[in-house]
TrEMBL record:
Substrate binds at residues 110, 257-258. It comes from Pyruvatibacter mobilis. The gene is gpsA. Catalyzes the reduction of the glycolytic intermediate dihydroxyacetone phosphate (DHAP) to sn-glycerol 3-phosphate (G3P), the key precursor for phospholipid synthesis. NAD(+) binds at residues 13-18, 142, 257. This is Glycerol-3-phosphate dehydrogenase [NAD(P)+]. GO terms for biological process: carbohydrate metabolic process; glycerol-3-phosphate biosynthetic process; glycerol-3-phosphate catabolic process; glycerophospholipid metabolic process; phospholipid biosynthetic process.
Amino acid sequence: MAQKPLSHIGIIGAGAWGTALAAVAARAGRKVTLWAYEPEVADSINRQHLNELYLPGIPLDTSIRATTDLSAVSANDALLLVCPAQALRSVTGSMARHVKPGTPVAICAKGIEQATGKLMTEVVAETLPEAVPAVLSGPSFAADVANGLPTAVTLACADDALGEALVEAIGIPAFRPYLASDLIGAELGGSVKNVLAIACGIVEGRKLGASAAAALTARGFAELTRLGVALGARAETLGGLSGLGDLILTCGSRQSRNMSLGAALGEGRDLAEIIAERVTVAEGVATAPAVVALARRHNVEMPICEAVAAIVTGEASVDDAIGGLLARPFKREA
Ligand SMILES: NC(=O)C1=CN([C@@H]2O[C@H](COP(=O)(O)OP(=O)(O)OC[C@H]3O[C@@H](n4cnc5c(N)ncnc54)[C@H](O)[C@@H]3O)[C@@H](O)[C@H]2O)C=CC1
Ligand SMILES: O=C(CO)COP(=O)(O)O
């Protein structure tokens, strides 16, 4: 049977990324309902067509309807999950009874659950077992996407027809989803690059130089690839938009919240203070210890992620972590 077009899209999470995706789906001609955690965010989207808290200054299509009612958003043809990774289990758990069996659910959050070490696909398999999971991930800053600048992402779905329908539903010339079937590869790249971006930020903040940043990015990619392959991901996914592509973007720009948080750490600022002055999430902080625990369980060496985890959990100072990495024995590159 031919796949029905997905004309009604529900977006769960009205932060910067959920709002940017709502803008894209509306431009693609879809009817969009956007779930906001904060009533004032829903109000600002409905009345002023702006999300002043998370995506300030970008006018939104007047057809986007915001709600704080999870049941209203869960009954759409397709759902995009765009809340922070650490909140995803509680949000999907509350949605479960409203989601129709067979609904495609695209995970757009980038992180690993700290309490369990589980990937977002595992969390969704447990909380929404009758949904068809997909992963949307890649190099895409929310502001760039909302402003209509050209971007390309990976859209991974094991069901080809549903994957194609999702691409059709949200793809526009300036937002190009590339279809894939490797969900683990697609989600792992986005989760691990946030941790590596904190490390690159530290290099920038400590003024360790462009050569150090390039070395760290390449060795970070080696770590990401080792873990991905151990978890069954395909190397070509890890080297694609959602892996290497997003790593290059996030490690190279202070527009990234993870990178800029790392830069502030590198400048000697206190983590609690940096977090307290932000409204938006930097997923790498919670994901760093989760990546390290996952890597240890699979006997995968990830020294850069270990160093970031030690810094964000207060087990090591920035200088001790840098010293520890530089003192590692010389080894073969691959
Ligand atoms: N901003 C970006 O450029 C991109 C972000 N992402 C990912 O999308 C996810 C969301 O990021 P953003 O929208 O940028 O974050 P944000 O910091 O702009 O917004 C976070 C959103 O989560 C909501 N929230 C906070 N606590 C919650 C809870 N306990 N339960 C439910 N919702 C809660 C907030 O109300 C807010 O709507 C993250 O995993 C991020 O890595 C992915 C690609 C691009
Ligand atoms: O994932 C992103 C771009 O692809 C956004 O990165 P930050 O969360 O570090 O801002």
